[in-house]
Amino acid sequence: MEESLPNRDRIPAHVAIIMDGNGRWAESRGISRLRGHRAGLQRVRDVLRASNDLGIQYLTLYAFSLENWNRPKTEVDGLMSLLIEYMERELNEVDRNGIRVRAIGRLDRLPGRVQKAVENAIERTRENSEMTLTFALSYGGRAEIVDAARKMVLDAERGTLLPKSIDEKTFRDYLYDPTLPDPDLLIRTGAEVRVSNFLLWQIAYAEIHNTNVMWPDFQKQNLVDAILDYQGRERRFGMTGSQVREGGS
Ligand code: IPE
Ligand code: IPE
Ligand code: MG
Fold it and tell me: Which regions of the chain does DSSP assign to beta strands (E)?
């Protein structure tokens, strides 16, 4: 197949990825699931570089879901250690490239040492503006909406939020990171075609690209393929095709 390059003018500003398939990748090789997660971590570094090269402004990675807390303790502990390792090992390069690190999720559930490593990365890269890398950690989309509702009720009780002023824009202000724009492109690796509680509010109009590639095998070319797929779509946001084409944005 002839390789093509994405149109530089239509690079999705925000790409979100459900990095799935580490376990199956490892099991098919007869190695431990944790080794699959370790291999997956290498791809985070590659995909971040590739995203930066391609001009993607926001990359959001689903690294650990609220439901993932129910996995065996050894796997959860291993994943937590890998997160710390990533934050410590990659921070210099991430910072040098002007990338700002953020995190969304019920971070208070993470072990203290993981919270520290994440906070340190966020703090050190706070002023960077080249690109934003957001980790969804201990994250659930429904929990995010519930947490937002709870904060809104508290503000309403305090009198700082008028119920009648609540609209979609106000609601967004109560999400974990209101500065995070909606993803334009949602990629899921690992062959499953489901959302698994990721960014439920934000993906309302995301284009979805699914691939059978397991996350530890995901290469720059797979990202490029996803972007080409995205660029071939017509985003209609409820309008007709001719309306969109006449609007010509
Ligand atoms: C994704 O890979 C990583 C996490 C959920 C932390 P999985 O561990 O879910 O891999 P599979 O789906 O079992 O192959
Ligand atoms: C989604 O993958 C969560 C992450 C990639 C962190 P899962 O492997 O947990 O999703 P399900 O259980 O197959 O839906
Ligand atoms: Mg999985």
Answer: 14-18, 58-65, 99-104, 131-139, 185-188, 207-210
Kindly report the CATH number that applies to the domain delimited by 12-140+182-230: 3.40.1180.10
Q: How far is the CA of 182 from the centre of ligand 2 (A)?
A: 20
3-class DSSP state of 63: strand
Q: What is the pTM of this model?
A: 0.97
Scan for tokens 């334009």, then name that residue.
184
**114-147 pLDDT tens trace:** 999 999 999 999 999 999 999 999 999 999 999 9
Quote the tokens at residue 107.
Answer: 């971070």
**What tens digit of pLDDT does each residue of 180-189 get?**
999 999 999 9
Ligand 2 contact via 192 beta carbon (within 6 Å) = yes
Query: Looking at the DSSP assignment, which residues form a beta bridge with residue 59?
Result: 15, 133
Q: Pocket of ligand 1, candidates 24, 35, 82, 110: which has the most ligand atoms within 8 Å of its Cβ, to mutate?
A: 24
